[in-house]
Specification:
With 590 residues, this protein is mainly α. Helix content is 48%, strand content 2%. It contains 22 helices and 4 strands. It has helices at 152-158, 164-175, 202-211, 213-217, 231-239, 243-255, 272-287, 291-298, 328-340, 344-366, 380-407, 411-423, 429-445, 449-466, 472-484, 488-501, 506-518, 522-535, 537-540, 543-556, 561-574, 582-585, and strands at 45-46, 49-50, 64-65, 121-123. It has a two-stranded antiparallel ribbon. A two-stranded antiparallel ribbon has the order 2-4. The chain starts with 44 loop residues before the first strand and ends in a 5-residue tail after the last helix.
Length: 590
């Protein structure tokens, strides 16, 4: 799976009663570099089976709900705005829901996907069209350097409430005469690139080792030296899936800002572009699962509370502009980052800090003030647009808190948040139905099967008011209930119907294979997974599916190397950097 993710979701418990940990998604982060892998589409469930033996099969208690992980980064215009999936939720009752909410068919599917799968799991969850919690709107990787006041849209997007200490320093910066303002080093953000050498092409090395240099050379993967040394080149590398090369290019671009190798701890001037480059870099590090390195390089930013990340700190450069130069998605990424390093308690504390500020801004807007609490007059339409934006951002933070709660197995907190949203009067029928379904899946994660059945029933009742036909969500919900009762044949039939509705859905195919495996049909399970890879290599060649398939190969026979190398050839042909840990997912030894 690419990026362990929104992700992101439920796992079953082995016979010993030790619950499995869910997989992470890279959480939904939008804005100029939001959501590497968070296009909310077709995210459903996959089964996580552990300690499987050929002769005996454990009885899974619950299954895993996780985000769909795509290896290809989306490039559509929606990614360039600060309102992709997660921030579209929780609108105010006065707003037209049809203009605010995401596609209900995928609503809330990223709940529970930000955790790390256990290394000893035999069958791993499969990401579909999505890979982790982060994704890059390619048009807005870096904003213009000399950005002037962009009107109400920029004002609401950049709004943020600084800390009291930061406010004092920002006032000093604005009221001091030119050349007379010298802040203390302690209040400055001084990042620098930690990685001193360029990242190599892991897949090239593996292919060269097993298939020879001639085969490896045919990959034709782009390097940072093959593109222009600017934002256009960075976009080109990301579009091609060359994430390591893109990270190498960010090193060169950040060096131009005095923030390159060995520059951590040295003062430098920030801009929207430099901060967006950092966001891009950190998001890409998460994308390739370099969580420790990402956390190390992100340490200098903290929670972006220092005054030098605000426009007011540079009155000569941005004379009439206020607000945060760092995107909201950057703030959310930094808050979520500890979750990737198995520190969900720290992440949940940070997320509550972010949530408190967002709630305060919404409260200010509803009190006829600006987001920051000033009495500046804005039009009614602009206020409604601001409420829509910040209500959506509030929901994004809540999603992340639910993911953290699930990783910590704090099911009470997760249920409280989702229940609170269900109780809100603002949702339409489609989204209420999606929330009920999500709540049912949380109940399965907690092992409360009767509760899950009750919520799924409510979701079905709402669905009948919208459409007479079952959809993939409902069929997957039913399959999960069957699995919880060890009725794998019935679960398989539900998934077959789901597959007929969405033949290219990799997660459905994976779940079908797992049900066949649990039913003792190993060869049929392998055939389903092989078909998933061969019919749609760009999506089927995901880490989790490859790991599952290679695991089944080993269950079938001790002579598996030929089949594994055939998969490696397909990776060489279709993938660049979008599959990390190649040797692990193919179970090869270098």
């Amino acid at each position: 799976m690419s990026g362990l993710p929104l992700s992101n979701y439920f796992s079953g418990a082995p016979p010993s009663g030790e619950p499995l940990t869910p997989l992470p998604p890279l959480t939904s982060i939008d804005n100029s570099l939001a959501n590497i892998g968070t296009l909310e589409k077709d995210k459903i469930l996959s089964f996580d089976l552990q300690n499987l033996h050929v002769s005996t099969v454990p009885e899974p208690i619950v299954c895993k709900l996780f985000a769909d992980s795509t290896n290809a980064l989306p490039t559509g215009p929606a990614l360039m705005q600060d309102n992709t999936f997660n921030q579209h939720a929780t609108p105010t009752p006065t707003l037209p829901l049809s203009q605010i909410l995401p596609d209900p068919s995928t609503f809330f599917d990223n709940i529970g996907s930000m955790t790390v799968a256990p290394s000893d799991s035999l069958i791993q969850p499969i990401p579909d069209s999505f890979s982790t919690p982060v994704e890059i709107p390619l048009d807005k990787i870096t904003p213009p350097e000399s950005q002037t006041v962009g009107g109400e849209g920029d004002r609401r997007r950049d709004a943020w409430i600084p800390t009291d200490e930061a406010k004092k320093i920002l006032i000093q910066a604005q009221t001091s005469s030119a050349g007379s303002f010298f802040p203390e080093r302690e209040v400055l953000t001084m990042p620098g690139v930690v990685l001193e050498s360029d990242l190599g092409d892991e897949l090239y090395d593996v292919v060269a080792h097993y298939l020879g240099e001639e085969e490896a050379v045919q990959r034709g993967s782009l390097g940072c030296e093959h593109v222009s040394q600017d934002d256009r080149g960075l976009r080109e590398l990301i579009q091609a899936g060359c994430f390591r090369a893109a990270i190498n290019l960010t090193t060169r671009l950040l060096t131009n800002y005095g923030q390159g190798v060995r520059r951590a701890g040295h003062p430098s001037k920030h801009s929207p572009r430099s901060l967006q480059l950092w966001f891009t870099r950190l998001a890409l590090l998460i994308k390739i699962n370099s969580y420790s390195l990402c956390e190390l390089e992100a340490e200098a930013f903290g929670m972006l509370q220092n005054p030098d990340v605000y426009f007011q700190f540079y009155p000569d450069t941005y004379p009439n502009r206020s607000g945060s130069m760092a995107s909201f998605s950057f703030r959310l990424l930094l808050a979520e980052l500890p979750m990737y390093n198995n520190k969900p308690d720290i992440a949940i504390a940070r997320l509550h800090t972010v949530l408190a500020i967002v709630k305060k801004m919404i409260k200010n807007l509803r009190a006829s003030k600006c987001e920051g609490g000033t009495d500046k007059q804005i039009t009614t339409q602009d206020r409604q647009e601001s409420l829509k934006l910040w209500s959506g951002r509030e929901a994004r933070v809540q999603f992340s808190i639910v993911n953290c709660a699930l990783q910590m197995k704090d099911y009470v907190l997760a249920m409280q948040i989702v229940e609170g949203m269900i109780a809100s009067p603002v949702w339409g029928a489609a989204h209420t139905r999606a929330l009920q379904s999500a709540m049912g899946r949380v109940c399965l994660q907690a092992g409360h099967v009767p509760g899950a059945e009750a919520y799924f029933k409510k979701a079905t009742q709402i669905r009948t008011t919208l459409s007479p036909e079952q959809d993939v969500r409902e069929l997957v919900d039913q399959s999960l209930l069957y699995v919880s009762q060890n009725l794998f044949s019935e679960a398989y039939q539900c998934l077959v119907k789901a597959n007929q509705l969405e033949p290219a859905n990799i997660m459905v195919l994976n779940n079908m294979a797992v049900c066949l495996l649990y039913s003792g049909k190993l060869k049929e399970a392998i055939a389903v997974m092989e078909n998933a890879v061969n019919s749609n290599p760009s999506r089927g060649l995901s880490e989790s599916l490859l790991l599952n398939l290679c695991t089944l190969y080993e269950l079938e026979s001790s002579n598996t190397m030929t089949k594994k190398l055939a998969l490696l050839q397909q990776l060489c042909r279709y993938k660049s950097d979008t599959v990390t840990n190649v040797t692990t997912c193919l179970k090869l030894n270098m």
